[in-house]
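Sequence in, structure out.
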Amino acid sequence: MSTKSSKTPPAKKYKPTVITKKSLNFLERYINNPSPTGFEASGQKLWLSYIKPFVDAVEVDTYGTAYGVINPKAPFKVVIEAHADEISWFVAYITEAGLIHVRRNGGSDHQIAPSKRVDIHTKKGTVKALFGWPAIHTRSDGKEEAPSLKNIFLDVGAKSKKEVEEMGIHVGCVITYEDQFMVLNDRYYVGRALDNRIGGFMIAEVARLLKENRKKLPYGLYIVNSVQEEVGLRGAEMIAHTIKPNAAIITDVCHDTSTPMINKIVEGDTKCGAGPVLTYGPAVHNKLLDFIIDAATKHKIEFQRDSVSRATGTDTDAFAYSNGGIPSALISLPLRYMHTTVEMAEIRDVEGVIKLMYQTLLSLTPKFNFKYL
């Protein structure tokens, strides 16, 4: 009998080749900083401060979409874009006993709320709170009542509505989870709001690489971090009309469908560790998509494919259908556990998106023919 171990050797850990220690430090601060839909200002300030050394100009629009520009006077304009906001809650109703009922701000998941700790943001500062839930001992046997918008609630340790209001809490205060960024098993970035501040990080890294590698682009590049994607792509809708680009490449997250309880027939077959995901769909410009695929093939960047029936559900749609039609494409980052506080993205894929976007931009010229016929 052989004495050799039959155990599968552990997978090798990925060593980043693009992301630096300074980059990672920024990413951690950026993910940990609350930036809920409609209240993205503090996160945008962090992002602008990081990107400013890599661009020629920075701008912020009326609702808070921030962007840096390389070659701002160039007539041909290309956008690379992500969105800055995160899902959150609003204070909707305060009971006389001092408990707080909530309303969604974006696609917040009511099922993960019970027992989570949160921050309520007020003019007086941050108030700590938690989502309460009845103890298992007190719930009926058999079919239990599941968490829903009708029964989840916040507890701030107050005894009355008056005490809650004295803390500075009122209807309309925004609420974010307090979970923090971490690196898991030297392989994954984990935290809340990777959807999609990890996108803001990736486009900033593209700008950094262009600057540090002294690359000159023959067009104007607009590195855009949009607001209010989680409530209808609103920031992208506004900024597309402001910039009026000739082409747009959007990055967002998509699902890792290899985890339990996800139907691949419905959701597609994409997973963490297999590279950026390129999407086919009506809003995606086929020639621009083929150009990105050629860049991936030429530079040996692994990628995956996905398709959508109607809309991509991302800022790609807002850009594609604005200004008479802007050639647009989507490069997605596979993500586990989207819209939870433990969203996971593989570091290998994060670098894959950065590299693919970088190489695509270096190959693109104002002479590119976007016409179908």
